[in-house]
Each structure stands twice: as structure tokens, then as C-alpha cells.
Design brief:
272 residues; alpha+beta; Fructose-1,6-Bisphosphatase, Chain A, domain 1; globular
Length: 272
């Protein structure tokens, strides 16, 4: 793990990031039961005032402690750089769920150095579950070590996914299920990629895949999944990076089986 830059207060970076995630969760819980002002960003992609409110609060905390580190955030934007330090924020992953009063969403906070995530947090305020990881030090849920499932066959496993915002991506995802079915136990569509990746890391899922994610959707999950012993790759099987536009996360055995079963699918056929 790379040494973190010194904060203005001298506090540990993980403590500061956890504090920011906690403040985000407090706002999300307070706003969840209230009426929401919803705006469309695209087909199936929405934003609420709460997304914006949480992002401002998290950015203020991080900027106060690390004024020199740039921030890439879903709502206010920024630049994905492979040089130096970079905070990556998704204030509300699962906005469609949140806006529809479905209690399944999270805040993502990650810190990358030279394009590699060094710290990742996915905080679910509804269940009071915080998944986090520091590079080289393992993955944790509420402070307890977690690891991917040790099931060796997809036939006994649960496949997790989310449908893409575009029609073709959704069709690809459904095609993947057809490629595997009935060679898996069941499938779950979550509406929060960050939680899907965290559930994979905690052994709740055996595979999680998504047609296309933005850096803030997957930043924490890339690290948490790997540190929990999983393989996190793009659709071609190469190690996933922040800019990867497709993601497959699984235990090593399940990953190999998934890649074999889906080799002829249209989605994977674009690269294999």
C-alpha cells in the first residue's frame, strides 16, 4: 500500500473517509422517507436533490483535509487521471432505488494513486453496513474480515447484475443470463453496482457483472473485490481498471466458469 498524503488535521485518511461516508449516510437516511425532486439525466438514469446535497458535504470534508487532491464525482464531474492522487465519489449509488423508496443504495468514496485504488468504502446506511478496503490489507465489513465465496460451481451460486441504461446493454445482460441458465442457482438484479460488488466480496454472490460502469460506480468495488480474494476483470478477462467499461467480479473458480460459459455471447464477443 502506498503511504497516504498527510491530512490538514493530521488524522488518518481512512478515518476521514469513514467520517465522510457516515455524514453521507445520515443525510440519506433523513431524506429517504421524504418526497423527492427527481430529474432525468438519461433513460432510466435519474438524479435527486439528495445526490447533490451528499456530494457537496463529502467534497467539503475531503477538500478541507486534502486541499491539493483533485476530486472526480458523479454529479459535479472532474477528470479521471492516472497520475497522482485522486478522490472518487458517488454520493448515491442506486439513485433510482432511492427515488422509488427502495431501500437499497450506498455512498462510494475511493482514493486512487496513479490510477490504482488504494482505499475504497461502500457505505449502506439502511443496513448500517460499511464495506471497506485498504490496498494490501484485506477487505472488511463493519471491521470484520470478508472473503469471496468458496463455492466451486456456478450451479450452486447466485449471479448478480444490473441492467444498463441503454437498450443494447440491457439486452447483452439478459443474453448473459440465457448463456448460463440453468447452470446457476438464481440471479439477482440490484440497482446498485457498488453494493453488488461488495456483496460479491462478502460471499453473498458468486459472480457480479455489469455491461458498462463509470469510474465512480466501481471505484471502491474494484479494490474491495480483489482484496476479498476475487478476480475483478473487464469482459475480455483483463484486470479491471477505473476506466474499464465492463466488469466481471467473481471468485477464481466461478470466474473461470463464467468466462467459459459466456465466451460466445454477444457482449463478450466484442472482445474475444
Amino acid at each position: 500500500m502506498t503511504d497516504f498524503p498527510r491530512s490538514s488535521s493530521g488524522r488518518n485518511t481512512i478515518d476521514i473517509a469513514m467520517e465522510a461516508a457516515g455524514y453521507a449516510g445520515t443525510i440519506l437516511l433523513r431524506r429517504f422517507s421524504e418526497s423527492k425532486n427527481i430529474k432525468m439525466k438519461g433513460r432510466g438514469n435519474v438524479v435527486t436533490e439528495t445526490d447533490l446535497e451528499v456530494e457537496v458535504v463529502v467534497k467539503e470534508i475531503l477538500k478541507k483535509e486534502y486541499p491539493e487532491i483533485p476530486i472526480l464525482a458523479e454529479e459535479s464531474g472532474g477528470h479521471l487521471s492516472n497520475e497522482g492522487w485522486l478522490w472518487i465519489i458517488d454520493p448515491l449509488d442506486g439513485t433510482r432505488n432511492f427515488a422509488s423508496n427502495i431501500p437499497h443504495f450506498a455512498t462510494v468514496i475511493a482514493l486512487a494513486y496513479n490510477g490504482e485504488v488504494q482505499l475504497g468504502i461502500t457505505h449502506d446506511p439502511i443496513r448500517n453496513e460499511t464495506f471497506h478496503s485498504l490496498k494490501g490489507l484485506g477487505a472488511f465489513l463493519n471491521g470484520q474480515s470478508i472473503s469471496v465465496s468458496d463455492e466451486e460451481s456456478l450451479a450452486d451460486g447466485i449471479l448478480g447484475l444490473d441492467l444498463s441504461y441503454d437498450d443494447q446493454g440491457g439486452a447483452y445482460s439478459l443474453d448473459i443470463i440465457k448463456s448460463i441458465w440453468p447452470g446457476m442457482q438464481t440471479a439477482r438484479i440490484f440497482g446498485s453496482a457498488a453494493l453488488g460488488l461488495s456483496y460479491l466480496a462478502a460471499g453473498r454472490l458468486h459472480v457480479f457483472f455489469h455491461h458498462k460502469l463509470e469510474p465512480w460506480d466501481q471505484a471502491s468495488g474494484l479494490l474491495i473485490g480483489e482484496e476479498a480474494g476475487g478476480l475483478v476483470t473487464d469482459r475480455a478477462g483483463n484486470r479491471a481498471r477505473l476506466a474499464s467499461d465492463g466488469i466481471i467480479a467473481a471468485s477464481p473458480h466461478a470466474h473461470a466458469e463464467f468466462m467459459a460459459l459466456t465466451k460466445q455471447s454477444a457482449w463478450r464477443g466484442e472482445t474475444v
